[in-house]
Structure to design on (157 residues):
């Protein structure tokens, strides 16, 4: 978050000089301390995000690929005249331990075309799938495996 504040400062100034960087460091530090004090943020969370950056970036790439694959599957269902769509509700329990990981999983499912997270409480998910083929492997998806790797060693933040 600190680096984001500093980057925004430099972008808004439009140039990099010693004075701008020093003043930006002070402003970014004050903003970071403000969010730590008043917005339940901590240096511990910042360090966790820095350690997990590449895993989170990889997760976003996988999410985009899965969205594209699902888009093609839904388009195929729509344009293939003889295909009978069979909507289904799938219930499963997530092995994820943190609220953050369950939140990301629920949103990833909803972002993927053809699936909507109906309910997500205490790791129990109910997902509406446009077709039964989209429901296959929902509880053991690539999202769950990547989120398990991300939350490994994260604690209960």
């Amino acid at each position: 978050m600190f680096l984001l504040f500093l980057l925004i400062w430099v972008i808004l100034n439009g140039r990099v000089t010693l004075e701008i960087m020093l003043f930006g460091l002070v402003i970014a530090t004050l903003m970071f301390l403000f969010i730590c004090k008043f917005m339940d943020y901590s240096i511990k969370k910042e360090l966790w995000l820095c350690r997990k950056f590449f895993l989170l970036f990889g997760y976003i790439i996988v999410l985009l690929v899965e969205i594209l694959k699902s888009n093609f599957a839904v388009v195929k269902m729509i344009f293939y005249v003889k295909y009978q769509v069979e909507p289904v509700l799938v219930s499963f329990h997530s092995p994820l331990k943190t609220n953050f990981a369950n939140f990301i999983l629920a949103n990833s499912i909803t972002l993927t075309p053809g699936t909507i997270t109906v309910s997500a409480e205490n790791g129990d998910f109910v997902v509406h799938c446009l077709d039964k083929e989209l429901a296959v492997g929902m509880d053991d998806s690539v999202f769950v495996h990547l989120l398990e790797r991300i939350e490994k060693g994260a604690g209960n933040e």
Observations:
- The longest strand covers residues 115-121.
- The longest helix spans residues 53-79.
- The chain has a mean pLDDT of 87.
